[in-house]
Amino acid sequence: MGRFWVKLSMNWAGTSKIWNLRRELIGQAYRPRFIPVRFEEGGISVFAFRADHGAPDILPGISRSDQICYIATGAGFLGSSHDYLAKIIQQLNHPGIDDPACTALLRDVDAHLYPR
User: Fold this and answer.
1) How far is CA 90 from CA 5, 6, 96, in A?
2) Cα–Cα distance, 97 to 12 (Å, whole number)
């Protein structure tokens, strides 16, 4: 799955006050980082959440069908997994970033939820 990137011109302390990081920082599964990204126009530092594949909440070896089922049925006090994935895609599409893997996963989750 992709990452959610936001261009920033402030430090970590300022960022944590502005962005709602609750969902990504509930457990120890994601590590917030500023990382360099290069575009044709040049490079910038962006804020990203990188998965910690050593964390107990990350299950990198689960089957595609289990991924679909978990996203289709998962929900917590901050919302559903389906809505979270849809929002990631929406946020990536806003600046023109296409993530075919996320888009295909959402399509498969929707097909699971709403069979024809």
Assistant:
1) 12, 13, 10
2) 24
Dist CA 41 CA 13 (whole Å): 28
pTM higher than 0.85: no
User: What are the backbone dihedrals phi and psi of residue 92, each rounded to the nearest 5 degrees, phi first?
Assistant: -70, -40
Two tokens, residue 74: 């998962």
Block mean pLDDT (10 aa), the chain, length 116: 43 48 71 84 83 85 95 91 92 85 97 94
pLDDT at 23: 63
The DSSP output letter for 53 is T
**38 has which bridge partners?**
43
Rounded CA separation 98/96 (Å): 6
